[in-house]
Input
Amino acid sequence: MKVLIACEESQEVCKAFRELGHEAFSCDILPCSGGHPEWHIQDDVLKHLNDGWDLMIAHPPCTFLSKAGTRWLYPKGKLNQDRYEKAIKGKEFFMKLFNANIKFIAVENPISNKIFDMPKESQRIQPYEFGHPIKKTTLLWLRNLPKLKATNIIKERIIYIDKKGIKHTGLNGWSAKRKSKTFSGIAKAMAKQWGNIEIKSNEEKKE
Ligand SMILES: C[S@@+](CC[C@H](N)C(=O)[O-])C[C@H]1O[C@@H](n2cnc3c(N)ncnc32)[C@H](O)[C@@H]1O
Output
């Protein structure tokens, strides 16, 4: 399959698809940090949506749209116009990816602020459903793809216990870049469950 991983510099998902023999490319305005520049397109992804992809998985920026950023959207109860306009541009970018002319599409983002009226997601997933002891609600918007199935549910969701003995399951203390990197368990599940989607649907037609 020809697979585009849009807005990905870590190459986590790209490498998971490559491991299964797919012709996958990451695309980001930043250089890649995943060690495979030969599989990376460093450019604005909007210029590459019509390059003949079978499947696109997109991770557009969420900084201005996310619910977690609400306190900066309304500092002292007043709307920050600059952040609001950036969020509207973020939504336009998200919609261009979701409406791209590619048969199979998955777009990933966290929960957004209601004010931006994002389309309803197809499903919500958690890293702890894919082998990581971490809670981070992640939304997926899917086009022609089945919901991603949990592969390894971790019941004990602890990242670390602090000096006071308090167990932390969130991502406090992680850098923004580390937080935005796709978890390897999720990347592997995407490659395994969506990498053979075309083969599966062709087989179903034959039956
Ligand atoms: C939320 S991060 C996703 C990171 C990704 N999960 C990973 O593991 O690398 C959003 C990414 O979108 C990239 N980006 C922003 N605008 C872009 C554009 N027009 N074309 C391609 N990438 C873009 C940013 O550089 C950033 O790396």
User: Anything to note?
Assistant: The chain has a mean pLDDT of 90. The pocket of S-adenosylmethionine is lined by residues 7-10, 12, 27-30, 44-46, 59, 61-62, 180-182 (CB under 6 Å). Strands lie at 2-6, 23-28, 40-42, 55-58, 104-109, 123-125, 138-143, 160-161, 167-168. The chain is about 25% helix and 20% strand.
